[in-house]
User: What shape does this take?
Amino acid sequence: MLQIRVIIGRFLQFNPEKAGDSMADNYYSGKKILITGGLGFLGSTLAIRLVELGAEVTLLDGMIPDLGANFFNIEPVKDRVKVAIANLGDRAATDYYVKDKNLVYNIGMHSCHLESMTNPIYDLETNVIPQVHFLESLRACNPQTRVVYIGTRAQYGQALTIPITEVTPPNPKDIYAATKQAVEWYHLLYNKICGLQVVSLRLGNTYGPRHQMRHPKYGVQNFLIRLALEDQEIKIFGDGTQKREMIYVEDIIRCLLLLGEQEVCLNQVYSIGSAESITFLELVQAILRACGAGRYVHAPWPEERKTIEVGDVVTDFSKLTAHTGWKPTTLLAEGLQKTVDYYRLCRERYW
Assistant: This one.
């Protein structure tokens, strides 16, 4: 079993033989940390890194079908984390698990743009109401802890300024983006209400190991890798020249660690971007090269997708760099190769 954990862990430079070593100079050593959505893509990847840094990590996950929760995601550290299965709207559970935590990473929400448009009540019931309950748990039981909230670049919608910065006005094009904006405002308001220390990161397209690969509703850029690995056809709507920024998950984790530590980040909102700006067509071509299989065809835009298409995405993340020193370091070809290698090794756990 140790050999399996080392093989899987190498995708994050995780060494289980050193993870429990003394880290007196490390900010996260001994910190009590709660991660909502902790069995999903980002939450599990963050958990592995935090355990490596000596933190005491609790994962809270509602195991909502199709959202990507997967116990295999935490295989390298499954004996070093606590796992609680509960919805964010379960006040008895959240009251208990937020107590005495030094830091909370609030990641647990669904992220399907199309589904939010066809079922807005589900979006409200999944993404907003449980979050208000969770904030109320924090107000009642741990009102001055730090919370790093994961927002979305989609809050800018079809951006009113290019490049996108934190002062670009929100302009959601779908209900999911609107609810994410609302929940960000809720978090910032709770700073004024009870002193909750809030940081919000408006996350862009993220790819890498541990993402669900069973359907394209969430993280379509990752699902394209599955299509290529299966030598299937990838559809590119329109000419594919819209610009996109793809951020490798390890770069995101470095950013989240900095946001959880730096005092200058308190009650701030940050945008994040990638090391290189590419077109969607170039992304698909890079995926095909990494997989050594697959093909693409151009197709007309379906009306439901055309309605929520946001156009070019170009982000100025200089505020984030100025406050934390963070910069992306993983180029697309490198990140895609790591991702493809992971799914080739662990395919049966994600297909």
Q: What stands out?
A: The domain at 2-211+246-276+315-334 is CATH 3.40.50.720 (Rossmann fold).
